[in-house]
Amino acid sequence: MATIKDVAKLAGVTVTTVSRVLNNRGYISEATRKKVYEAMKELDYQPNELARSLYRRKSNIIGLIVPNVSHPFFAEFTSYVEAYAYEMGYKVLICNSYQDKAKEKDYVEMLKRNQVDGIIMGSHTIDTSDYLSSTFPIVALDRDLSDNIPYVTSDNYNGGFLATNLLIDKGCRKLAHISGPLEINTPANKRYQAFVDVASGRNVEYIVKEAKLDLFNNYKKLIYSLFIDHPDIDGIFASSDMIATAAIHVANEVGKEVPKDLKIVGYDDIGFASFIVPPLTTIRQPIKEMGELSIKVLIDQIEGKQVERENVLPISLIERKTT
């Protein structure tokens, strides 16, 4: 395997000159630069990226931690993050935490050791103290970690407001909201708060059930128990399209016709929401824009620029056939 010394010898320059070419440091004539690149090509020389990153104190690698990249929302988000990061000259190291605190902490420490330039945190488990000791840039997705860490989210309160009002306007008199875990400090909890505010303000009976980011069949079990305990529920606002899809499945299995007997509103507008039968009414998060903004805010931090702590993008109501 060729070394930097072999490249320098073939190009007729010093090792320092080759290093300066590789790291784009100092003045190098085009003729010298060309000789170095030709020597590298002839020898099939592959630079040591770790050594280069240590020298430059910059790796052009970003860490992304998500609960589960197979979840449709996080799959779409990850896809947009990777595409936009690559466009901006960065590569993405993707980590699945699977809601495991120990695993998430291991990933954070691993990313620090491997000199990533910053982290996008899309997982919601460990204490903020595990982040606050970090000296490199962090952007949180849908999580308010601390006063010093910026986050990207959608207008969750307005999303819950529109969804709940729609169900009531369509004639629902007993509502259920299936939320995420409310004990975690996340802007997504504002969906729950809007649901409670609207249902209470309009004197409509309601129930709230908490669901973890979980398997589809576990969502179905939760909804089965909801229907057993409250068979007269006629409207569901689900905090994700996955939960809403599970509600449609369970409704079909227990003989509730959607939307005649049960109206359902989801949240996210992930790719398959319009292909569900019946097509899902949902709150559209701008997932593409959330991915791009997460990268922009992170790179701005990396480059030492001032960034806004709260980055809230607008949502929209997409009415289809489940209401």
Automatic annotation (TrEMBL):
Keyword Ligase recorded: no
Native organism: Defluviitalea raffinosedens
Annotated TM spans: none
Coiled-coil positions: none
Residues annotated as domain HTH lacI-type: 2-56
PROSITE patterns cross-referenced by the UniProt entry: HTH_CROC1, HTH_LACI_1, HTH_LACI_2
Protein name: LacI family DNA-binding transcriptional regulator
Limits of the HTH cro/C1-type domain: 3-46
Keywords on record: DNA-binding, Repressor, Transcription, Transcription regulation
GO molecular function, a single term: DNA-binding transcription factor activity
SMART domains in alphabetical order: HTH_LACI
